[in-house]
């Protein structure tokens, strides 16, 4: 009988643990273009966006602004079940023309990450400063920065990254009267040197383009976002991502996402015990499923092939008994 009650108690922990640990993380989505079929890898169709909005309105989610989520994560405040934020990169005109009317009508907040050089350049492809000011004045939209020139920041010196950020700050101050506090890494690419420049520039947090929920134990300067496009924007995938909870990962190695050894000796430590570790699977973007070895709280991941030049990603997941996924993603840069 004692063994039976022990089994029941263990199952109860597995079944209720997802909701409890979900309070430690939030899902952030990333969009680029809307209804622009010329660029399917960066585009979200209107029928997809409409389905996302309907899901957020009817699926029991709590949609918060990104600054509110960042504050909660940094202060380790419990988040509501299925907390979600929306972000949009690059301020393409299709944001203003196709997404903004729908998101405004649904009263859904989002963060728009602006590249100041592109906005200054103008033309039919990009939103104007007047349009950006209109969104900022609505109370629904937070303006974030992607810097001035949208460079590959790990390929620059720390001084060059600082110059790019300073140039962007001058333009934001001139056009909006304030400098954003949130940053998005161009192309999702980060290095430790570039991170120091972003910190020194006064940002509160920075976001990449690797998948997974943002967890309150993670560094606030390389937070993940689920990217959405025509391929990865169907409602089934959106719903799956929106319901993920974080794998509580610390002590990632190598600590710099810009690789000096390739393939990297990749590993991480679980901050606390997670049920189902025997079901952990890790997948590299260039290789598929890779080898993992668990040594107590430490997980070592080994790849047999080097990442190609540019960006590479790895995702580690564990299924839960209530149909959700614990998820940790990471992005590397190879110069």
What can you tell me about this protein's structure?
Residues 82-335 form the NodB homology domain. GO terms for molecular function: hydrolase activity, acting on carbon-nitrogen (but not peptide) bonds. This is Chitooligosaccharide deacetylase. It holds the Pfam family Polysacc_deac_1. The chain has helices spanning 2-22, 46-58, 66-74, 93-105, 116-121, 129-137, 158-176, 192-200, 235-242; strands at residues 25-31, 33-34, 43-44, 62-63, 83-89, 110-114, 141-145, 182-184, 205-207, 214-215, 226-227, 245-246, 249-253, 266-270, 281-284, 288-295, 298-302, 310-319, 325-334. The protein contains nine helices and 19 strands. α2 packs parallel to α4 (93-105) and α7 (158-176) runs parallel beside α8. With 335 residues, the chain is an alpha/beta fold. 32% of the residues lie in helices and 27% in strands. The protein starts with a helix and ends with a strand. The chain folds into two domains: 2-244, Glycoside hydrolase/deacetylase (TIM Barrel, Alpha-Beta Barrel), CATH 3.20.20; 251-334, Immunoglobulin-like, CATH 2.60.40.1220. A hairpin with a 2-residue loop joins β16 (288-295) and β17 (298-302). Strands 12-19-18-15-16-17-14-13 form an eight-stranded mixed β-sheet. Strands 1, 4, 5, 6, 7, 10 and 11 form a seven-stranded mixed β-sheet that branches. A two-stranded parallel sheet has the order 2-3. The longest helix has 21 residues, at 2-22.
């Amino acid at each position: 009988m004692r063994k039976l009650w022990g089994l029941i108690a263990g199952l109860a922990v597995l079944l209720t643990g997802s909701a409890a640990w979900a309070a430690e993380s939030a899902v952030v989505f990333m969009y680029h273009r809307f209804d622009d079929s010329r660029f399917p890898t960066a585009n979200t169709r209107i029928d997809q966006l409409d389905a996302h909005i309907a899901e957020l309105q009817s699926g029991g989610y709590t949609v918060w602004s990104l600054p509110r989520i960042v504050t909660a994560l940094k202060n380790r405040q419990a988040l509501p079940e299925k907390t979600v934020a929306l972000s949009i990169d690059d301020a393409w005109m299709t944001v203003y023309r196709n997404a903004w009317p729908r998101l405004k009508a649904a009263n859904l907040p989002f963060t728009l990450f602006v590249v100041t050089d592109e906005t200054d350049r103008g033309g039919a492809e990009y939103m104007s400063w007047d349009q950006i000011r209109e969104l900022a004045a609505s109370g629904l939209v937070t303006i974030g920065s992607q810097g001035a020139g949208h460079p590959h920041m790990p390929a620059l010196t720390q001084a060059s990254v600082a110059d790019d950020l300073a140039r962007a700050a001058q333009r934001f101050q001139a056009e909006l009267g304030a400098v954003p506090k949130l940053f998005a890494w161009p192309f999702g690419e980060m290095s430790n040197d570039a991170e120091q420049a972003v910190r020194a520039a006064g940002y509160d947090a920075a976001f990449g383009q690797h998948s997974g929920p943002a967890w309150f134990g993670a560094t606030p300067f390389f937070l993940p976002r689920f990217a959405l496009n025509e391929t990865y924007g169907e409602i089934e995938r959106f719903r799956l991502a929106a319901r993920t909870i974080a794998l509580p990962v610390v002590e990632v190695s190598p600590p710099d996402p810009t690789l000096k050894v390739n393939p990297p000796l990749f590993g991480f430590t679980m901050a606390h015990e997670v049920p189902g570790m025997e079901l952990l699977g890790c997948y590299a973007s260039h290789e598929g499923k890779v080898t993992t070895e668990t040594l107590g709280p430490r997980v070592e991941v080994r790849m047999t092939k080097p990442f190609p030049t540019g960006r590479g990603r790895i995702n580690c997941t564990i299924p839960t008994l209530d149909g959700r996924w614990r998820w940790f993603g990471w992005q590397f840069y190879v110069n």
